[in-house]
Each structure stands twice: as structure tokens, then as C-alpha cells.
Amino acid sequence: MPAYSVSMSVVTYNSEKHIGELLDSIAAHVRGVAYHLYVIDNGSTDRTIEIVKSRDDGHITLMENKENVGFGRGHNLILDRIRSQYHACINPDIFIKDDVIGALSAYLDAHQEIGLVTPKVLYPNGELQILPKRNPKVLYLLSRKCRIGALKKYREAFEMREKDPDTAFDIEFCTGCFLFVRTDLLKKVGGFDERFFLYFEDADLGRKIRRYARTQYNPAFVVYHYWQRASDKKIRFFLIQLSSMRKYFRKWKNQAP
């Protein structure tokens, strides 16, 4: 019998370009755990649902929303259903090349003080994705939008560039593209704050988790991410990001980091 039980959730919205690759990679590589994958579709109008149904091997539950309820709320829809030891929140544009799910399960089992782990995230070509790792600040966020020399030190601080990316270390901001968490802890903090439709819900979750356990970046575990960066390309997503930023700073104002 597998040593660990793992649930996974993927929120899709017109994700036909990548969802098949993610599901195929999970089916091909996850061997060391008993797992179930929930795909929560937010009203896709492309072939996303058709592709998910074609991959159903008994390990997948498809939940179809009539409208786009957002990233955090989508993931939260399965909180009352899952009884696993560990849970993975995964973006539809992720794929894996080994049993990272089984390896993460064994790691958290051996390190009870750690509540959440985010792996090394690579582009499909193997290049490292530099993602935020400290709690957001206005200058940190500005430094990632405006790539000017005067803001470089803030961008590097946000991304914790002073750390060796090939060693494990504790972080504050755990990227939502792939995070692996203890299920009981995820339930204890109430999952994602649904006031965030998109963006900052992962930064918020990390702060809630760190009230009870360590959150860690660990490059011993690797996933691959196409990373669309929609907020840099479409004004609608940028405006959603601004709205979420205001909510985040309002919520955490004057609270301990």
C-alpha cells in the first residue's frame, strides 16, 4: 500500500493549451502515494473540459462551475471533500518529470515542523524562474514592474537573491503555481482568502500558514511552469492585480510579518 495519501487541486479557465500535459505528467510519474486530483473548471469555453474527461483514469474528479469564481475560491471548493495527509495546489500550466508528489510527501513526513513547501520552478527549457519569496511591499512590487537600476535592490530583496537557489531556506511568499501543504493545516487556516479573486492569495496563505509552521523553498523538488504573466500583457489582469494588492495591504496593515 502507498505510504501517503495526497489530494491535488487544479483550477482551470480556458486551459486547453496545457492541461493535458499536466494530467499526463501526473499519471506518468506519481507512483509513491495514493492520490486523487480535483479539476475545478471556472466556466471554460474552449476544449478544457473535453480534455480533462479524456484523461479520467479513476484518479480525477471534474467540478464544473458555471462562472469564473476565481483562483482561491476555486481551490477552496474541495476543502470539505478531502481527507488526505497532504495537498498540492497546482496551476494548469505546470508539468512534472518525476514523482515530486511522492518525494514531497516523504519530506514533510520527516520534517514535522514544516507546514508548506514550494519547489524549484523551472521554465520548460530548464531555466530557473525567479519568483517572489518575501512578503510583498510596494517598492518590491514596483521593482518587478519597472526594471530600472534604482529599483534593482528591491527586486533582489523580494526574490531573496542573496540566497543560494540550490539550497533550501525558509521563505514568506509561497508561489501559488505549485505549493505542497499539510491538509490539516490548510483546513485550519481556512484555505485561501476568497476576497482575492486572483493574485496575492498565495502571499496571504503563506502568512497564515506561518502562524503555525515553517514555510520553505526547497530545490530538491522540481516542477516546470510555462508562466504566462498575464498581468504584464493584459490591462484587465493588471487591474485585478492592483485590486488584490490593495486588499492585501489593507488586511495585513500593522500586523506582524
Question: TL;DR?
Answer:
The chain has 257 residues and is of the alpha/beta class. It contains nine helices and nine strands.
Write up this protein:
With 257 residues, this protein is α/β, with parallel strands linked by helices. 32% of the residues lie in helices and 23% in strands. The protein has nine helices and nine strands. Strands 1, 2, 3, 4, 5, 6, 7, 8 and 9 form a nine-stranded mixed beta sheet that branches. β1 (4-12), α1 (19-29) and β2 form a beta-alpha-beta unit. α5 (138-145) crosses α6 (152-158). It is globular, with a radius of gyration of 17 Å. The model has no long low-confidence stretch (mean pLDDT 94).
SSE layout and pairing:
Layout: E1 4-12, H1 19-29, E2 33-42, H2 48-54, E3 60-65, H3 71-76, E4 86-90, E5 94-95, H4 100-110, E6 114-122, H5 138-145, H6 152-158, E7 169-170, E8 178-182, H7 183-188, H8 201-209, E9 214-225, H9 235-252
Parallel strand pairs: 1-2, 1-4, 2-3, 6-9
Antiparallel strand pairs: 4-8, 5-9, 6-8, 7-9
Helix pairs in contact: 5-6
